């Protein structure tokens, strides 16, 4: 493979593989298995026509579905609609899904998919058309026993409903288990929407306990006030923390005395953006990361904490809600500075965990209460956090390497047991 450029070789892919390489070297991972895990097992790129509502133009758009690891069971991973999406980003996200599922003990390998389009400019009918066409383009790859998409950036419950309907129309009967993150009415799970944010806060509380910090009264900063960041902020506030700053795509708001999130939510309902929320200071998405706080939760997009700004972070604890927010250079700086990091592959794995619950409930046709979902989620998150922490403390390594050792060991053992065909 040396000397040949891989189709998915982009900065984000290099980050995912760079993390893998560091840990694999540290744990003396079998080189054959290591090499297998550096690339996706299946990657589909499609291009298809997309007609705008005005009938004036037909655009050609690209869609992707990547399955990183088929060893553990069906594959699982979200669906991202983004103007800059490429095969490298989808591949990196699929690799991270593999580790998340293994760390949480879920019977899946990692996958990811999406469409290279800006969903914000689309009408509802355009979004539906593109979702249905994309689903039919990847239909051979997905299914409740094969590969189960969920939502991610730029997609939501309605998009999952259209994907489920498109698949079900093709096979001739309703198949709720083909996607997760669906509306409750068609087989979704209670607690799914809040699950990632709930997992982030569970990890933050566990980390505080380990570090001897009080979560109650701690100052929290959240970059990205969406499904993950918004839920994490609201839950943290409900549990006694002081949320001092939050942001969205346009920038953030800061009040060192703590934000009243009910008022913030009412403002966002009316104005869509946080911008202009009274009684607070405006901050940019770069500045928000450097505010004085105890707990920093990046919950927007990748590549936010880098070698350029890591030495200016003022938090004691970094809990990664987003996927890939921290690069390798920043990891080194933060470790040296004693900032405790709960990596994305642990911190945001609450989403895939409740997606797994949704898939199980769809298969059983027996649905759990919200309390059951939340309690099972918290139990699994705490167990995973403590397992990873034990490796981190025992081997005197950071939590990202410890988490990867946990995930890689499970995957490597499964690969070894299954052997090589033929
Ligand atoms: P979302 O669309 O609900 O929210 C994203 C937030 O980030 C919004 O407030 C948005 O305004 C802001 N944002 C968007 N682009 C930005 C930019 N360029 N700079 C700064 N802020 C920006 O998305 P989400 O579901 O909350 O996902 C957020 C992150 O969490 C993503 O990295 C996603 O992959 C990851 N994640 C989500 C889930 C889940 O269950 N939703 C699970 C695991 C990981």
Could you give a quick summary of the protein structure above?
The protein is α/β, with parallel strands linked by helices and 422 residues long. Helices cover 45% and strands 17% of the residues. The radius of gyration is 21 Å and the shape is globular.
What report would you give on this structure?
The protein has 422 residues and is an alpha/beta fold. Helix content is 45%, strand content 17%. It is built from 13 helices and twelve strands. It has helices at residues 11-26, 31-37, 87-104, 124-137, 157-171, 192-211, 227-238, 261-271, 328-337, 344-347, 350-364, 370-395, 399-418; strands spanning 42-51, 58-67, 75-82, 109-116, 147-151, 219-223, 242-248, 251-254, 281-283, 295-298, 317-319, 340-342. A seven-stranded mixed β-sheet has the order 9-8-7-6-10-11-12. A five-stranded mixed β-sheet has the order 1-2-4-3-5. The mean pLDDT is 97. The structure holds nicotinamide-adenine-dinucleotide (NAD). The site of nicotinamide-adenine-dinucleotide has 20 residues, from α7. Nicotinamide-adenine-dinucleotide is lined by residues 152-153, 196, 224-229, 248-249, 285, 299-301, 321-323, 348, 351.
